[in-house]
């Protein structure tokens, strides 16, 4: 599966399945996004009735937004970088606390085509999904263009939360 943009029908199918799962479990969701620029929230809210479980999202593209809005510790960004598992986890917990939700999806990465380094190449993303009890964070190195990397990150985040909810 290689979503190429936010209108890919596979993203709609995933978001409908996630919505059904959230409703079945009586859970609420929030999102914290950097490299996807709000795409996760967009595909979730494309589903009619999503207002019953989706409480909102924060697009924290800058480090200052991560710090001020999501209360990510500045030291995490300074020590690990904005694109790191530590920051992804802090973003997830931050948005959960801010919007008082049961679950969260957080993404941070380098969508491209610029911005990569040898240590952190274009396509590097960290995705964190959380519920009240646990958090799972995964690293991916995607090999597409900007739209493809953003679409795949969105799909992976939704799938990861679905797996967490089923566990």
Describe the structure.
The protein is an alpha/beta fold and 167 residues long. It has a single domain, classed as Maf protein, CATH 3.90.950. The protein is built from six helices and five strands; from the N terminus they run H-E-H-E-H-H-H-E-E-E-H. Strands 2-1-3-4-5 form a five-stranded mixed sheet, sandwiched between helices. Strand 1 (29-33), helix 2 (39-45) and strand 2 form a beta-alpha-beta unit. It is globular, with a radius of gyration of 14 Å. The model is unreliable at 1-6 (pLDDT under 50).
- Coarse shape: globular
Largest sheet: 5 strands, mixed
Main CATH class: Alpha Beta
Q: Termini, distance in Å? A: 23 Å
| Mean pLDDT reading | 93
Q: Helicity, in percent?
A: 40-55%
What is the H level of CATH, i.e. the homologous superfamily? CinA-like
Low-confidence stretches: 1-6
From the 3D structure, determine the CATH topology.
Maf protein
So how many helices?
A: 6
* Strand order in space, largest sheet: 2-1-3-4-5
Q: What number of structural domains do the residues give?
A: 1
List the main descriptive attributes of the protein structure presented here.
6 helices; single chain; Maf protein; five-stranded mixed sheet; 167 residues; alpha/beta
Question: TL;DR of this structure?
Answer:
This protein is an alpha/beta fold and 167 residues long. Helix content is 45%, strand content 19%. Helix 1 runs parallel beside helix 6.
């Amino acid at each position: 599966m290689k979503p190429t943009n936010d209108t890919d029908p596979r993203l709609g199918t995933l978001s409908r399945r996630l919505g059904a799962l959230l409703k079945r479990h009586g859970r609420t969701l929030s999102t914290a996004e950097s490299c996807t620029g709000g795409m996760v929230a967009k595909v979730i809210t494309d589903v009619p009735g999503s207002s019953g479980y989706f409480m909102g999202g924060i697009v924290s593209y800058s480090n200052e937004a991560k710090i001020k809005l999501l209360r990510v510790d500045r030291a995490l960004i300074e020590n690990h970088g904005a694109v790191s598992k530590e920051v992804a986890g802090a973003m997830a917990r931050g948005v959960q606390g801010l919007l008082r939700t049961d679950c969260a999806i957080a993404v941070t990465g380098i969508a491209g085509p610029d911005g990569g380094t040898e240590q952190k190449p274009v396509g590097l993303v960290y995705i964190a999904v959380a519920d009240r009890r646990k958090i799972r964070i995964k690293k991916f190195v995607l090999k597409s263009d900007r739209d493809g990397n953003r679409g795949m990150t969105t799909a992976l985040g939704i799938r990861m939360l679905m797996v967490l909810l089923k566990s």
